[in-house]
Records
---
Amino acid sequence: NAGVTQTPKFQVLKTGQSMTLQCAQDMNHEYMSWYRQDPGMGLRLIHYSVGAGITDQGEVPNGYNVSRSTTEDFPLRLLSAAPSQTSVYFCASSPRGISSGANVLTFGAGSRLTVL
Amino acid sequence: AQTVTQSQPEMSVQEAETVTLSCTYDTSESNYYLFWYKQPPSRQMILVIRQEAYKQQNATENRFSVNFQKAAKSFSLKISDSQLGDTAMYFCAFPSAPEYGNKLVFGAGTILRVKS
């Protein structure tokens, strides 16, 4: 049981390049999300999905795209990387939505992205 | 507003001693969950403990316990018999109300260093 798998673990990009952070979970979770972690700011939600074909914006969505074509996968796309997107990115999933708090998030190992 | 404040950016404790990490939050919800997550140097986010707001009894998980003061909106984490493996960043978090998005709201984190 792999849980939540993120790839790559490290990536260096040049400004303007595009890339995709991959996220896959094998727990049949409906809810998946992407957070970014920056020093002094905790984790902030970028985008989330409550099921295949359904996505919504979080609090810092600009510069990122997501799609959810299957229950298992939730990739995060950077269309034109900027230095402000240098961060650590976490994918996290839960059996269902987390507003009630009854469902606990399972996190991937994180991906460190540096944009030069 | 849905906010979490961790007022201690860094703390240190001697091995085998007890330390308390502070957290205050702001929500207008009447029932909710509160979480403490641990992030060791490996970067993995690990759930330490969870408290449901309507339960008066403070949650306990082995050496970890909370002091939950609902009226004061305070949710501190006590670590007893500190071990070197407790060295990590600790985040306090709670699920936002549905109108604020399907997300966890995180504090900025407290770095805890356990010294031998």
---
Amino acid sequence: GNSVTQMEGPVTLSEEAFLTINCTYTATGYPSLFWYVQYPGEGLQLLLKATKADDKGSNKGFEATYRKETTSFHLEKGSVQVSDSAVYFCALSERGSTLGRLYFGRGTQLTVWP
Amino acid sequence: EAQVTQNPRYLITVTGKKLTVTCSQNMNHEYMSWYRQDPGLGLRQIYYSMNVEVTDKGDVPEGYKVSRKEKRNFPLILESPSPNQTSLYFCASSLVGAGTLNSPLHFGNGTRLTVT
């Protein structure tokens, strides 16, 4: 089956620190991978995405590389800001007939202190 | 402004009293879906709809109903709510499918439901 495993939170960092949030997946096929972000009181928003092995998704200083050999899609940012405080969700979708399903990890709460 | 609108934002009800949470999108999206978010469990899909009059169960459909009579609306119905349905609910839509790269999910701001 399909599933996503994220590192347990919460993650607390000082401003300008380096961020890594681990994400690994299990998929029956060749999935597309996503990171979504949820700011307080809001719905989720797409942060970045990747469709094939070695693709790097990037947005707002965040990056994640699709690693097929390790089935991973870790989220990184070189220097976090207070405004990055949010919950981050890793997700996958199977290409092909299951376009209706997007599988989310449990989410990782990030808090950045000034 | 392109958006997914859910109503109400907050709802407190009692066990067994039927309720409906509305969801509407103005982007002419074919795909719509409902999720519930619970601490430690992340987002779990309740139902989804690939197009008008087409709905399918997600991971946790028990106790919920949906309908898709028109493209823009996808209401979530709880015929007889129970306390274990206390949760934060999100409606989402996308142009085609849930995970295609050029069709990201757009989420509403959520409905916090409490069933006593």
